[in-house]
Amino acid sequence: MAQRVTLRKRQPYNTTSSRRRIVKTPGGVLRYHHIKKLATAPKCGDCGSKLSGVVALRPREYATVSKTQKHVNRAYGGSRCGTCVRSRVVRAFLIEEAKVVKRVIKSQQKGGRS
Question: For the whole prediction, is pTM greater than 0.85?
Answer without folding.
Answer: no
